[in-house]
Write a structure and sequence with these properties.
Blueprint: H1 2-16, H2 52-60, H3 62-76, E1 112-119, E2 123-130, E3 138-142, E4 150-153, E5 155-157, E6 160-161, E7 164-165, E8 168-174, E9 182-187, E10 194-197, E11 205-209, H4 217-226, E12 233-237, H5 248-261, E13 266-269, H6 287-292, E14 308-312, E15 315-319, H7 331-341, E16 350-354, H8 371-383, E17 388-391, E18 397-404, E19 407-408, E20 414-418, E21 439-443, E22 447-453, E23 458-465, E24 475-480
Helix pairs in contact: 7-8
Catalytic activity: a phosphate monoester + H2O = an alcohol + phosphate
Keywords: Glycoprotein, Hydrolase, Iron, Signal, Zinc
Enzyme class: hydrolase
Length: 505
């Protein structure tokens, strides 16, 4: 019975949710697409309640539907052939990579899966999990190791997914904190001491960007390369643990990244592998993601943990949700429009956007999946003179020139796909030939990127392969802030692709 119930979520996703759960199908020789079923999401209207009361009724009534659902799945559903709901692609995945399962050797009261994230102007959120539910949600911290002259108390939560229980998830905000300063902290009054360094108040600042991370030997290589050189903030545009409803893999992922995520703030957004919908019982999705990876959405006026923004050292960073509504009537669209309208480029001359499904892509994998979102939101980003847009989802690296509406445009963002963090599904090896003139560099290799913003006008982007030494740069480009580019300062820029300098964007 246990194995039957464990298999249930995956099987139901394959039969009913293929347009949203496309990456779960790596063992079939087809690849459904996402975007056409997200706008409008009519296919899933039955499973997405319109109010909290409706959600509660559905969750309380799942017992009445559970066994009929199981019978339907196993006796009536031809799931290996259920591809008619989604568009087709000729992309075939590599065999899956070996997953690293990180064991837990601490006591039930000791903190595990510790990670930190920026929240507000001068605060940090500390998140950790304990098996012991009586451990208090408090953090002691200070500037000297072993001497904690400040303490903050936060909140705790937990969640269940079928027979899995998460333990107690603690979230505590600490601060105010000084910029560029090392702090030592202890979670729950017990366990080991951790430390982190706050980002600087102003330039220069360095971001690491890694997408589709997972928890494989490739992941371990990526993280080792990342942390061979210092940086300030880690940005992850979706697909974290690749748990895909197997909840213990969320714990394993948390333990794998703890040595890194407890030392530098990790700012993440969701990918398709975070959805984890099970109709009727768990119809809303993102249950584990929202409980474990709480981001500063409330501080920026967002109503959802799936999209938010924050300021750090002269940069405005926007994390968008590819797997929630994004058309002009949606809450996300209205929030983004308002958020961009409040940006003061004299204070934050750099604006960077991260999302999961790329808007521009010459790889055979996931072709066109970001098109609906691009058509809905690209004008907002263009008018606001967004400097760079990072995406994941495609398991390769690709850098485009500045683009607007499928044309080279000196006032559009630079688009970069960096979904090569090390996930178990392997690399997306096939690119279109001949290549588009808009695509300046592309390569299916595992690696990570670094965005070093030097001052109000100049930044340097570099991409580093895992197969190379830590200092080797496989691709790089110098960027100029569009806030300081004279021809792009107005809301309507000059659209002359011939004036795009491919060596300096």
């Amino acid at each position: 019975m246990w194995s039957l119930l464990q298999a249930c979520p995956t099987i139901f996703q394959l039969t009913c949710l293929t347009p949203l759960q496309s990456n779960c199908l790596h063992f079939f020789k087809f690849q459904p697409r996402v975007a056409s079923y997200l706008k409008p999401p009519s296919l899933f209207t039955y499973f997405v309640p319109s109010s909290a009361n409706e959600q509660l009724k559905m969750e309380k009534s799942w017992q009445n539907h559970f066994f009929p659902v199981l019978l339907t799945i196993f006796f009536f559903s031809p799931f290996p052939f259920q591809t008619s709901l989604a568009l087709q692609s000729d992309y075939i995945r590599q065999p899956p990579g070996k997953v690293i399962v990180t064991p837990h050797h601490r006591s039930k009261s000791d903190p595990q899966q510790v990670h930190i994230s920026l929240v507000g102007k001068d605060q940090m959120r500390i998140t950790w999990i304990t098996e012991d539910k009586d451990v208090p949600s408090k953090v002691e911290y200070g500037k000297v190791s072993g001497r904690y002259n400040a303490m903050a108390v936060g909140e705790q939560t937990s969640y269940h997914y079928f027979f899995y229980s998460s333990g107690k998830i603690h979230h505590v905000k600490i601060g105010p904190l000084e910029p560029g300063t090392t702090y030592y902290y202890r979670c729950g009054g017990l366990g080991p001491e951790f430390s982190f360094k706050t980002p600087p108040r102003t330039f220069p600042i360095e971001f690491v960007v890694v997408g589709d991370l997972g928890q494989t030997e490739w992941t371990a290589s990526t993280l080792a390369h990342v942390h061979s050189k210092d940086y300030h903030v880690f940005l992850l545009p979706g697909d974290l643990s690749y748990a895909d409803t197997q909840q213990p893999l969320w714990d394993s992922f948390g333990r794998l990244v703890e040595p890194y995520a407890s030392r530098r703030p990790w700012m993440v957004t969701e990918g398709n592998h975070e959805i984890e919908i099970f109709p009727i019982i768990y119809p809303r999705g993102f249950k584990a993601y929202n409980a474990r990876w709480l981001m500063p959405y409330q501080e920026c006026g967002s109503t959802s943990n799936l999209y938010y923004s924050f300021d750090v050292a002269g940069s405005h960073i926007i994390m968008l949700g590819s797997y929630t509504d994004f058309d002009e009537t949606s809450a996300q669209y209205k929030w983004l429009e308002a958020d961009l309208g409040k940006v003061d480029r004299t204070k934050t001359p750099w604006v960077v956007v991260l999302l999961h499904a790329p808007w521009y892509n010459t790889n055979s994998a996931h072709k066109g999946e970001g098109e609906s979102m691009r058509k809905a939101m690209e004008d907002l980003l263009y008018k606001a003179r967004v400097d760079v847009v990072f995406a994941g989802h495609v398991h390769a690296y690709e850098r485009f020139t500045r683009i607007y509406d499928n044309k080279a445009d000196p006032c559009g963002p630079v688009y970069i796909t960096i979904g090569d963090g090390g996930n178990r599904e392997g690399l997306a090896l096939t690119f279109e030939n001949p290549t588009s003139e808009l695509s300046l560099y592309r390569e299916p290799s595992f690696g990570h990127g670094r965005l070093r913003i030097l001052d109000e006008t100049r930044a340097h982007w570099s991409w580093h392969r895992n197969n190379d030494s830590d200092s080797y740069v496989a691709d790089e480009v110098w960027l100029e802030s569009l806030a300081t580019t004279k021809s792009c300062c107005a809301n309507t820029g000059e659209r002359d692709g011939s004036k795009v300098n491919k060596d300096e964007l």
